[in-house]
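Below is a concrete protein record.
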Amino acid sequence: MKAIFYGLRNNHVYLILITLVCGTVVLWAWEKTPFLTTILPPQDHVMRLSADDKIKEQQVSVGENILEQSEKGVDIAVVNATNTSSSAVEEGNTNLTTLLDKEHEISPSTKEVSDVEQVSKQKNSSKQGEKKNLVAPSSSVRTDSSVRGEDNNNLMSHVEKQACSYAKGKWVTDDSRPLYSGFGCKQWLSSMWSCRLTQRQDFQYEKLRWQPKDCKMEDFTGSKFLSRMKDKTLAFVGDSLGRQQFQSVMCMVTGGEQRTDVLNVGEEYGLVKGRGAIRPGGWAYRFPNTNTTVLYYWSASLCDLVPLDITNLSTDVAMHLDRPPAFLRHYLHKFDVLVLNTGHHWNRGKLNANRWVMYVGGVPNTDRKIAGIPGARNLTVHSIIKWVNSQLLRYPGLKAFYRSISPRHFFNGDWDTGGTCENTSANAAGMEVLQEESSDDLAARAVKGTSVKLLDITALSQLRDEGHISRYSIKATPGAQDCLHWCLPGVPDTWNEILFAQL
């Protein structure tokens, strides 16, 4: 028994000695060659891998955001360029001579507005520029096959569809027209423009519908318009042709029916009839069911008009060519769709009758280069469009349009020299528009490179000389013919159909 005990004790001692020796060897080997470091990465390397993964994740996220914006039609290049534009137009600090030289607005061959139908044509390439700008930078987006292939093809297809030129097409007969009755719509339509109330006997002009060449224009209905404009405001700012477009919209939306639920909200926009005034400076109506507001503000020149002496009714009026109307500066933030126009008041007779005196930079104009009517009008149109474009970054939900000029059709004279427009056939000047460029050269050049869209109605309206008020009136009194304004229902309804399609 003792022999067994002493044997086990000796074995235990040997085991302890062996363990100590092995431990010493392991510790010595670790100091010389730490073999575990070949298996486990250093702590700082693990940290770098996490950071790299995070950077890649952020890059993918940025690429997705830019792609999403591109698919929504965000013009990155235009936004960046516009972001650097100055607001000096409103402050009157624009270098006007440089502006005019740059835009090439003044030329020896420039004509008065009354000859706008014969102005030389210039190619408008803004649609191509829009397509190029919609492509996001390749360094900022993912380059997998779905992004470079199918998604981009769908995006460009969508852009091409949206870029349809509604100005090209033809007039066709449609027995379902007009969209409202000229006998009705007395709530919104001025009687002087309702040719059904006059002695006119032919109404074939009411049956014509504009059919674009390369795309189908969506049918207009009041319910679709109100749904699309839910909680939104449509504002027309311009001359009496803008007022016709405004009245046309009201008739189209209501179908010419009486609407007691529609609210007059002109007071919200300062559109109230002043003491001694024939009419207010505009009108504003709201459809309560959809909270849709449609308004019109009279601004024949589209520039700021300020009486030099408010205590004198016969005072001269400063016509600030480089400054938008105070109404726009005060209420632009309330608008969702803005339609601007000007043109037919730009003649020496109108300026003299209204006692308008040209101002530039806050002082009377001394630049002979813009003292003439064409130069002054060019400066104003470019200035107002540049100003509106500069505001679109502040109000990204706002869609702005500049409507090209509505053509006049005085034959054998002018409005005060025996000019007439007694044609009753729409076939006299043809029925189709095939030209690529706008007939309103000034309008096309003014909107080029901006996010303000051109509502191009000049050429298609040029074909409709039979659609004017002409010699007809309610009392059948002889006098000058109106070959400027249109019968309603009529051509301005088409302007609104195109506007509705572009929305």
User: Anything to note?
Assistant: The first strand starts at residue 169 and ends at 173. Residues 95-119+170-502 form one domain. Confidence is low (pLDDT under 50) at residues 1-9, 32-153, 155-161.
